Amino acid sequence: TNQKQWENCAGTLLKDVAFQGKAEISWARLGNSLQDQFISATRQKRDLCTRSLSCYDMSYISCRFFNSRAVVTQKEYEKFWFWYGKCLQVLRYQRHICQLWLKGLIYGFMTRHDVHAALNGQKPGTFVIRFSESHPGLFGLAYISQDTPPRLKHYLVKPTDTAAAKITLPDFLKDKPQFSRVLMLRPHPSGKPHFEIRTKNEVFSSFYSNRDQAVDGDGYEPLG
């Protein structure tokens, strides 16, 4: 199954499992099915799950797509999947992205209000990675600029920035001095989102491509 086929098939399968032919179901039922699918799509095991959808992720989805109602319809689901399916496909297939999610380096589901709260008072160069709300499957980088005075800015990572996946997201970040310190999501006893501030190279260096490796005069590279 290629990536596009997977997105379509996964959306149909989730709808069939959750709705079972009904026009509407409870949000709780859809949420349970979403969680099962997410764990499978990110290649985790339920009994050894590093990072599933949190209660805050679920709240984001419920509020944004279903107006926090107790009952959801198939029509609402279709609109939701058009956005969410592309995000899930990126997590499943795009190089490094799932590992970045599992490590808390991608926050993911975050409103602009949440972004403002998380970055309020942070130093210039501090950033957080989330899924773009207006461009399904793409990432938005919210960061504190080097301007005087510093201000919160938003940047959309476009396909051209990563040369159609030939350059990874970590490589893109490596080359951009605007991004120096990332908000890394960490577990917290309260269950609420908790961030640690880490330098970019500290947490992303293991994902960088070795693009500066020397090349022999005849064009061959040594084995690494």
UniProtKB/TrEMBL annotation:
UniProt xrefs under InterPro entries: EF-hand_12, p53-like_TF_DNA-bd_sf, SH2, SH2_dom_sf, STAT
Keyword Signal: no
Residue span(s) of domain SH2: 101-188
A GO MF label: DNA-binding transcription factor activity
BP terms from Gene Ontology: signal transduction
Keywords attached to this entry: SH2 domain
Domain of life per record: Eukaryota
Gene3D superfamilies: EF-hand (1.10.238.10), SH2 domain (3.30.505.10)
SUPFAM superfamilies found in the cross-reference section: p53-like transcription factors, SH2 domain
Keyword Glycosyltransferase: no
Protein family membership: Belongs to the transcription factor STAT family.
Protein name: SH2 domain-containing protein
Species lineage: Eukaryota, Amoebozoa, Discosea, Flabellinia, Dactylopodida
